[in-house]
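Let us practice reading a record.
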Amino acid sequence: MTTIHWFRKGLRLHDNPALLAAVREGTELRPVFVLDPWFVKNAKVGPNRWRFLAQTLADLDAGLRKLKSRLFVVRGSPEEVFPKLFKTWDVKRITWELDTEPYARTRDERVEKLAKECGVEVACRVGHTLYRVEKIIDANLGKTPLTYQSLQKLANKLGHPPKPIGTLTELPESCHLQEEAASNASYDPPSLKELGVKEEKLEPCFYPGGETEALARLEKYMERKSWVCKFEKPKTSPNSLQPSTTVLSPYLKFGCLSPRTMYHQLLQVYKGSSHTQPPVSLLGQLLWREFFYTVGATTPNFDRMEGNPVCRQIPWVRDEKLMDAWTHARTGYPFIDAIMTQLRKEGWVHHLARHAVACFLTRGDLWQPWEDGMKVFEELLLDADWSLNAGNWMWLSASAFFNSYFRVYSPIAFGKNTDKHGDYIRKYLPQLAKYPESFIYEPWKAPLGVQRAAGCIIGQDYPRPIVDHSVVMKRNLERMGQAYRAGKEKKASEAKPPPKKKMKK
């Protein structure tokens, strides 16, 4: 008899309740990851994230082999492969970690139905979030909390999330694999070539995927007790040459790192010391994650404007040329283009850098739909996470959760606050590297002689600004004001009771 543990997220051996639920005396354990060739071919996933996944799966396989098991990477859709595996492997039980995303829930319901039809027991456990989403909503009298403050109060009411359950360090002998299964190369983790990635075109890897790297990175930062206790996310630098935050987000996204493990390690670091508080502390960042997971799990059409009850309806105007210039770092604003270049090369940018480019694309300058920017981030970010990606784009476009639309990030002044010399721009836009400090953020203002001396003529070697920020910002503020007023009027109209019909005599 066999038990399958189905890895999706939760790609780790530590604090994995669903994996431990699969470890039973008397059954052979088969850890499975399903790689759908259709998804590989059609999904808009950038090469950096495919590489991260390949590294993560290889690391997970190596960890399982130390336990006399292995990872079975099965090719096909879950609905196709599982009924075959249930029969071929004589499967009696399947476990997996709960996933809150709407598509995943629908998929899991289909697989659960197929399992029951095949006489296979299904066991699901919470591991990707601090709390079960339903528990948060129940604590809020059945309603979804729509502000961070309300989520924080609910978390305080619920108390600390459960402590991590430890690491799977050994398997009962009955769970060990037979030699034939252990050596079958058809189940090996995918190569980059199989994932459609041309290895020779990849940029250097700064953030290797996998649980091993995740735990090493967590330990490295937890050892910096003073830094952890003083951490305030808004005071970190968006354009430092080395990350000014932990860059643990990709590891949390793939589940290489347990959020409960990080949460409780933070509590140990804080113990007996004064420290910053949510929402700006490191623990506060985990609660931000929990907030967007909760709202995303319970809001219809959360990743789009139309039909989304929490999202303001704003009349964005799609312009392919503007969108393409932003996506490919050709806006003519060096700070914005440097961020978009780093994103494409490395798969990660600081959260305030994300704020700057998102504001620029939407309400600040280009007036493009936030959904379009969200899709670019979905492709390029290592930590692209459905709930957080959609939620943050609504926030930064002032479509939901944030209504101070008049607070606009300047594509010129904002970057100067933390990098007045423009070193970040010089790193990611080397064509501007020889510009003097006085023109590095606004190279179009440099006299032609200065441009020639720098070896970069604006409009020829680097684009002119595609919009005039000082002009479009004012126009867009008016547009946002109109959209907000229209939204209030619509709500007021909908709230009015219908007029009473006059009775006929």
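A brief commentary: The first strand starts at residue 2 and ends at 7.
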